[in-house]
Design the sequence.
């Protein structure tokens, strides 16, 4: 074994629901090798695939799981949590004013000083220069109309956008369970 997966620290386990779909794509549901082994011993998961790396004790040796599936199905949430990453993903990592993809921040469409809240329906991705230019004004006052109206996305809508943004690495044992692979080969 070589590269980043040669030590236990470089061997995260992909966690699948009981239906063999990842628990989450954003962020990708990964457990440390320690959490994966603990779940195996607590009989909470099935090992689907292993790395070629093993951990040892004086009387025991175990290959590290690379893919595990939960024994009990967890119903996925319909709506994702409001986080900076999920907001950027909803907006395809583009400023909703100018389309730039650098120095991303988030902007309250109705400014907080006017009672605007930090919700899916009032926050959009904005680059730092546009955010500064708009300041505490309403979009019409600033002459800056967002490309799309802010909305609360479903998990499926985020997954659809996320297909264009695969994780930095994919272990070969994960390929059958993640949809990015077919698009990466195309």
Sequence:
């Amino acid at each position: 074994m070589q590269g980043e997966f040669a030590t236990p620290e470089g061997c995260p386990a992909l966690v699948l629901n009981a239906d063999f779909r990842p628990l989450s794509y954003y962020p990708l549901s990964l457990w440390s090798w320690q959490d994966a082994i603990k779940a195996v011993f607590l009989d909470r998961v099935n090992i689907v695939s292993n790395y070629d790396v093993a951990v040892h004790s004086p009387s025991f040796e175990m290959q590290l799981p690379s893919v595990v599936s939960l024994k009990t199905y967890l119903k996925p949430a319909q709506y994702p949590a409001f986080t900076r990453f999920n907001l950027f993903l909803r907006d395809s990592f583009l400023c909703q004013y100018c389309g730039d993809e650098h120095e991303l921040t988030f902007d309250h469409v109705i400014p907080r000083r006017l009672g605007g809240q930090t919700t899916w329906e009032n926050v959009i991705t904005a680059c730092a220069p546009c955010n500064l230019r708009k300041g505490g004004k309403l979009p019409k006052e600033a002459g800056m109309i967002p490309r799309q109206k802010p909305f609360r996305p479903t998990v499926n809508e985020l997954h659809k956008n996320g297909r264009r943004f695969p994780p930095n690495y994919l272990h070969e044992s994960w390929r059958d369970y993640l949809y990015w692979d077919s698009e990466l080969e195309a």
In short: The longest strand covers residues 45-57.
